[in-house]
Amino acid sequence: MLMAPNGDDESHSGADATLSPDAVDAINKAKAAVEALPGCAGKVSCADILAMAARDVVSLLGGPNYAVELGRLDGKTFNRAIVKHVLPGPGFNLDQLNSLFAQNGFTQTDMIALSGAHTIGVTHCDKFVRRIYTFKQHLPWNPPMNLEYLRSLRRVCPINYSPTAIAMLDASTPRVFDNAYFNNLRYNKGLLASDQVLFTDRRSRPTVNLFAANSTAFQEAFVAAMAKLGRIGLKTGSDGEIRRVCTAVN
Ligand code: HEM
């Protein structure tokens, strides 16, 4: 988890690519509950709690249940500046997505499966508003969008949208971890440009079609890619620690 240098937590750090305040709160509560158990204080890292929380959300919402590889340590530093360099952007095209994910050892199929996490959750208007107000079929940065869907999004995010307004990433079943996200893409109902481009670009379209048609293929690819995700930047030695509270180094 990210901390602000002043000790304030990630949800207030302004890095603009962070956990929501509710999510930070849930992790903090889980950590406090573990620390309070006899013999458990100082044994479970925030990184492991976060990975298990992600797994639990996926499975509670109807997705696959999978084992999480445990033993990650928490970071001892925070660098806000690198956040925007290590995360993909909502306007990324296929080459940009593939390049960033490949740097972390992911294949294109892994990247598409992980994007399937957008079968749940929300996004703020600023992440896609340019797409719905300068809508032109042939702009290279803006993959096509279903017209009816576009109109509904303009109601959610009017030109003077509120910074807290949100839209569901999966317009059809936002609270179920299923493969509907991929089917939406086939009807040009992907919310972020980085979602829709997976279907628009002919190089990734066959995988979107596979995951839309075959939920088991999606789930298996998702679980395999999540295991890889959990191994990125692994800290197991003196470069890490088990934080006492998740929002501050010890
Ligand atoms: C492929 C590149 C990706 C891009 C460009 C991307 C971009 C985004 C953006 C812009 C948001 C909305 C943030 C906001 O408005 O507050 C978001 C939300 C979300 N992303 Fe991604 N993401 C990507 C990959 C992933 C991966 C790999 C996962 C997990 C495996 C993931 C899971 C989620 C979830 C669950 C949400 C909803 C969060 C909530 O409801 O609070 N995304 N993503």
UniProtKB/TrEMBL annotation:
GO molecular function: heme binding; lactoperoxidase activity; metal ion binding
Keyword Disulfide bond listed: yes
Catalytic activity as recorded in UniProt: 2 a phenolic donor + H2O2 = 2 a phenolic radical donor + 2 H2O
Residues that, per the record, bind Ca(2+) 2: T119, D170, T173, D178
Binding note for cofactor: Binds 1 heme b (iron(II)-protoporphyrin IX) group per subunit.
A single GO BP: response to oxidative stress
Annotated GO CC locations: extracellular region
Residues annotated as domain Plant heme peroxidase family profile: 1-250
Amino-acid positions noted as binding heme b in the UniProt annotation, renumbered to this chain: H118
Residues at which substrate binds: P88
Keywords linked to the UniProt accession: Calcium, Disulfide bond, Heme, Hydrogen peroxide, Iron, Metal-binding, Oxidoreductase, Peroxidase, Pyrrolidone carboxylic acid
Superkingdom, taxonomy of origin: Eukaryota
Bridged cysteine pairs (disulfide): C46-C246, C125-C157
Compartmental location: Secreted
Identification of the protein by name: Peroxidase 16-like
